[in-house]
Structures are given as structure tokens and as C-alpha cells.
Amino acid sequence: MRRASTSSRPASTVSRSSARRCNSRLSPFMSEAPVPSTGASLFSLVPDAEAAAASARAAADRLVIPITRGLRRTSGQVSGSAAGSSIDFQDHRPYMPGDDPRHIDWQAYARSGHYTMKLYREEVRPLVDLVIDCSPSMALDAVKARRSLELAAFCLETVQRSASSLHVFTLAGATTTPLENSLALHQIAIAGEVESVPRFELIPWRAASLRIVISDLLFAANPEAICPALAAGNGRGIIFAPHCTAESDPDWQGNTELADCESTARRDFQFSQDDLRQYRATYANHFALWQDATRRCGIALARVSAESPLVDALRENALSVGAVEIA
Fold it and tell me: What is the CATH number of domain 36-67+126-250+290-326?
């Protein structure tokens, strides 16, 4: 008999409610993997963690998160996308009543006889709120644990290279933990058991911030209730969702013991090929709902495969949706 782990999330688990239903109806929350140790550091769960962090830094040399896209804050050291008060000339526009006459281009007036205003690039201080889901399914197996660590390291590296104000939190169910920016990669602790789905509404999102979420989204919750918070208060959202083959295309067959990796519950199941087809269809539908919800809220959702090198996975899945751009 094989052991598989389930969490309360799609493909990497079977949710607790699903497990109680046995296999009368398959849920998209199952996969084969041991339950992570309670409170284990994600860094300690990855055998080659230093190499994983190095690969993330290398990826940040080639790809970056579009932190300042659409930013409208007017104090800081980074060029924004609107007009402001820096010394960097941007464009001209006709003078309008109420404009500051100090910005009139008198040379243009001498040539044309029309008052023209000089526009300068605004200077901004980007605000970035980074939230890392620490549910056990984020470290479902070795390859997914490494990809979760790489994504965290990539986001931290990219944001810290900018002049952004960064707040970092981990989230496990209803437990939110603020992290020290410089130590965050080593402070990410995978929960041994969680009592609820991630409560993103408990995060103190700052107004007009870029909200970056690293989560596999494998939990039984309505995405329509979660996504609006990532765009509220003039904010902008990006979700990086790591996934692995063990959750998206499991090979369970016959008698299988499933362990809910979000709790200590275990249960025996009997799987057939029809059951697996139903599971895969449910898994695909789960993420189709997330795609629809994020699209309606203007959130970039990038599902990042754990089976290919980080930079390749980001190019394939995150570049096209605007979650990253060429450095």
C-alpha cells in the first residue's frame, strides 16, 4: 500500500472534507508525499537550499518583477510612469489655468507664441507587500519545496534590488507572521498542521502597494472572495503559484492510503483510472476558477512548474501574464 499526502488544497492534497467523503467524489487536493515536520524551516527542507537561492539570484539578473508599473506615488528615488517633480525631463503639454508658471517652456513660447508646460518624470517609493503561504502542501515533495524556496528568494532578491519599501509576511491558516527582510528566506517555517484556509484578509495590505503572493492555491475557498483584496486600495496583485507533477498528474492506482498534509488525518482509498480522470478534471477546473477570478481583478496569476529550471519556468508561465519582465 502506498502513502500519499493530501492537504486542504487542489492537487497536492485531499481536503479534510473531501477525505471524509472517501472516494465517492474525488477532490483536487491530493498527492504523494510525507507530511512536513511541524514548524520546519523551508530552507532546511531543501537539501541544496544554498544552490536554490543562488539560482534565484541568477534568475533575478535576467527577469524582474514589474514593481513600478502604473505606480502613482510621488516621493522616492525610483522613476514612476507619470509626471512629477524630478529633474528628469519627460514631455511637453499645453499650458492650462492653474499650472505652475515656473514650468513654462519659454524657449518653446518664443518659437511658437503658445504657452507650453515642461513635464518631468515623477519620483516614487514603491511599496511591496510579500506574502508567503506556509501551508504544508507548499513543501509537498522535494521538487516543490525547492521551487517554493526559489520563488521566495527570487521575489526577495528582485524587490530588495529596487528602492522599494518591503513588508514580508508568512501565512498559515489564520496565523500571520511578519519577517525581517534580510532574514526572511531563513525564517519561512512550514506549518505542520493548519485549521483553516489561508486568511489573506488578515494581511495589513498598504494602500497603493504591489501585493505579491506565493501560494499553490490548493485550498477549498472561493477565489472570488479572495482576489478583490489584492487589488483594493489602489493596489496591484501578482500571484506565483508553484506546482508539481505529483499533484497535477498523480499515478495512484488501487489501494492507497492518503494522509492529509494539512492535518494528521489518514484514510484508505481505492483508485481506478476513472477516479484519476475525474481528479485531473477537478484539478483543472479549480485553477480555471482562479484564472477567471484573477483576470477580472486585474491580478497576474503565474503558475510556475517545479520540474524545470526557475528561469525557464518563469519565462514560460510568468512572462506572458506580466508577472515578470525582461531585466
Answer: 3.40.50.410
